[in-house]
Request: fold
Amino acid sequence: MTSAHTVTLGLAGTGRIGTSHAETLKHLPGVETVIVADADAERAHAAATKLGVQAVPDIDTLFAAPLDGLIIATATDSHPELITRAVDQGIPVFCEKPVATDIQGTRAVIAHLENSTVPVQIGFQRRFDAGYRAARDAIASGSLGWLHTLRATTLDPTPPPAEYIPHSGGIFRDCGVHDFDIIRWVTGREVVEVYATGANRGGQFFADAGDVDTAAVLLRLDDGALATVSLGRYNGAGYDVRLEALGSLGNAVVGLDDRSPLTSVEPDYAPSPYPAYPSFMERFRRAYTDELAAFLSVVSGELASPCTPADALEAFYIAEACELSRHENRPVAVAGVRR
Reply:
């Protein structure tokens, strides 16, 4: 590290999430310098000027800097090379999900890291959200009894740009993977079987890319509990992310607050005066901050990676099983995808 208390961090990728991370990092205690780079040097320079951080002309120059840690927020197909390059240089890594574009690529990265002690943290920010943490604690305490049902929801108010969809990996890998990861993390259980289906009632570009704009998933956990996951790209009421954990003694609900985009038609219901969350950035702003603060503890050696590439692979297996299930219209055992 640059000193006993401060670090220099590199950030690769200055799109929306990368720029947001750079702004967060510069305000975190212990961060002395943030250096950004992007495949588009002009975009990196513009972001650095706006945020008051440093910019370098390319990724090679970024790797030549005295980095204590690297944050990767680039296109998915660049993640494996950047992760392994940083680790080979002894630089701890925070990388936005996914590790790679497919299972084979993810396994290759994990194999490369097998004999390394350099930590790698994958960005599943819901693990740092106060509501999901409270639900996890409630389940672990036994206060809910035994779980019989979980209901997860991720509904975007508007779809991503049409040009994004063909490279997104599809709704299960791009969107649902967050729900799959958090169900595993909150319950401490593994998903053993999936059944998934989907529909297209929105833009033709989803169908053209072999994707769907709406999906429903049924998961069977290894203790017999059932989980449903609802995914959608056209939830005009607002960004809706929730998790309901229903047990034999009680329940815990995440994401049910004054900004939840739910409209009750009960006659005595008083609607909330607060606007719905417009996007994931606003809904999880505090979680993103806490996630990056945790990475600083990983960099300092005070904390092991709270979300490893192996964790990301498990969520990816579930997403792959869902995609296979949708195409073949049948239940799919996750064990079969792992082979």
Remarks:
- The longest strand covers residues 147-155.
